[in-house]
Amino acid sequence: MPLGIGVGQVVALVRETRAVESSSAYVTVSGPRAGELAAALAEGGNPAAVVVDADPLAAAVVIRLLDGEPSPAENELHRRIVRAGVPLIVLRPGGEPVPYALPEDVLDLGPELPIAALATAMVRAAPDAGPRLAARLPVLRPAVSRRLITMTSMLNALLAASNKTSGPQLPLLALAQSRMLLLLGATRGGPLPHDAQGLAMAAGPPVAASVGLGVAARTLVRRAPLQGRLVRAAVAYAGTRVLGEARLRLP
Question: Residue 92 is part of which domain span?
Fold first, then answer.
């Protein structure tokens, strides 16, 4: 493989993407207007990914709708959810604080359901589950894509600025970019092949694009009138973001 990227690393990337595609993760919604919210979240996607009144401790994200102050029984339920490590998001009129829920995970529940704000909160609260849920719920894809591109760009900038990395940085940057590109494709609902040749073809373009951009970026840094960690970080950030934004424009 080019520039120190091994076959095993590419296989690991594809396996991670396959896990997104085959995931059975679901969101559970309960409380007043739960059915309405579940239908809105599942619009255009897989209804099985949003379940009303399902087991909250087995869910990827729990969404609770309240019409006022939570009762002792509701507070106890929220405590159990949080202690189990399951992300909890609460919608209530006024968005007032709720015990056991983080302030940023309590949203105002008005006449209109805050779907865009809820999608952002879900992706922030459950970043690992975000791609798996977005593959089945189109309403989450914009928020997941934004976070994936931003976080990968920031991590690559930190990596490029670091002087502590042992060995060449380009393979690490390219792998992170390839992972981003594959996940962006998987979260848009595109099926992956299951044969070896098809997998190689699926992984090849993202890896090639990342390596090609990395070589160009390295040349740019070496020819830049200013040198240093900040320059490397800026180039890594911009290059990663350009790749991600370009992938979103493709069908």
Answer: 27-128
Same domain, 43 and 102: yes
Residue-wise DSSP of 26-82: -EEEESTTHHHHHHHHTTTS-GGGEEET--GGGSSEEEEE-SSSPPHHHHHHHHHHH
The tokens describing 76, both together, are: 């106890």
- The answer to whether the CB of 50 falls within 8 A of the CB of 27 is yes
Number of structural domains the chain divides into: 2
Reading the chain (251 residues) residue by residue, the pLDDT tens digits are: 444 455 556 666 666 666 666 578 899 999 999 999 999 999 999 999 999 999 999 999 999 999 999 999 999 999 999 999 999 999 999 999 999 999 999 999 999 999 999 999 999 999 888 988 998 999 999 999 999 999 999 988 888 887 655 445 777 787 788 788 878 887 876 655 555 455 555 555 555 555 555 555 555 555 555 556 777 788 788 888 888 888 787 76
Check: CB of residue 193 under 8 Å from CB of residue 201: yes
**Residue 134 maps to a domain:** no
Domain boundary among the residues 128, 152, 178 is at: 128
* 8 Å CB contact between 49 and 25: yes
Asked whether residue 146 falls in the same domain as residue 122, the answer is: no
